[in-house]
Structure prediction request, 405 residues.
Amino acid sequence: MQTKVIKFKNSEELELSARLELPLGTKPTAYAIFAHCFTCGKNAKAATNISRQLTQNGFGVLRFDFTGLGQSEGDFAETGFTNNISDIVSAAEFLEEYYLAPSLLVGHSLGGTAVIHASAKIESVKAVCTIAAPAEATHVLRLLNRDRAEIEQKGKAEVNIGGRPFEIGNTFITDIEKHSTASVLADLKKAILVMHSPQDRVVGIDNAAELYTAARHPKSFISLDGADHLILNPHDAEYASGVLGAWVKRYISEDKTQYLETENQTAVRLSDAGFTTEVITGSHRFIADEPKSVGGNDLGPSPYQLLNAALGACTAMTLKMYADRKKWDLSEVTVHLDHKSQYAKDMENPESPKSKIDVFERKLQIKGDLDDDQKKRLLEIADKCPVHRTLTDTEVKIETSLLED
Prediction:
């Protein structure tokens, strides 16, 4: 994906900081807004991971810091739930003016409750998704515990939420109590997807049941089994966004004519998101990355893992083609691979760059009614797969040039 740094103004003319994630090699088929959890920010793991995964489904996704949080202007202590809703509406107005009006709103935790209210004010929105959202915004008041009395007495107070100090004012308490999510859902004529983990210890699963019951059809529920409230595991974020991407296609039509054309077989793009790289090859789109140990986000396989996969896939396909031609009973092939660089034992000069060689360790698991001679022959055929021969039998040249923007 490609990421753009965005700033837009809210209804109070305060500048809000945002990131716009765009799919690679194509104009977005639709736009979405992601609203982060209470006191979090646009760079929270759930906001970042889910937004980037949604670009794989053709969405442009705007995620931003609410007023007074992150890099956005304003005093958080002077804001309330109404401000959150208004900020989402302002984000939608920005998209409509400079890109395309959003058709999907996604919200995490209190952001999920906020997108329900905001969707009622944004005509272009066709679908709403909540993730670990409280049924009513007042649920967040439980986080204040004993601090609420001090806030009401002094007008504002510093509270500790999630290990971080925040100043919250009495405006927040009085404002949040004015909103009823159930009443909004009763009149909301938009598709809604409720996602929640049964193991959520911050916002219980009963909140999802209340939201689902209050909502009108079409409505759906997906269990994020095993996920924590903050969706810290990227695999949970990938699952959530994958299901969301498939679900929302029923309610938001795609414009297939928007895809850009290319004369190349494969294209990749790396933006400012660490090493996260989007790959397009033919009609397939996926993400490559590096592990977190070297500064990546671990959202996809590394380049050498992809190379392993190419060799493994080609090996399995070659064996299957050969066995089919011979009419052998080959029911399953599993190829296990490792890649490593090591010094060649027969090199006289170990300091020379040529003294290092790349070694692919390939192990085959073959199932079927095959005798020893057939298995031995399949082992020989593995070395004849096209990718194997490209790596070992041919001189490889890579010609590199610059393209003009």
Q: What stands out?
A: Residues 7 and 17 are 5 Å apart (CA to CA).
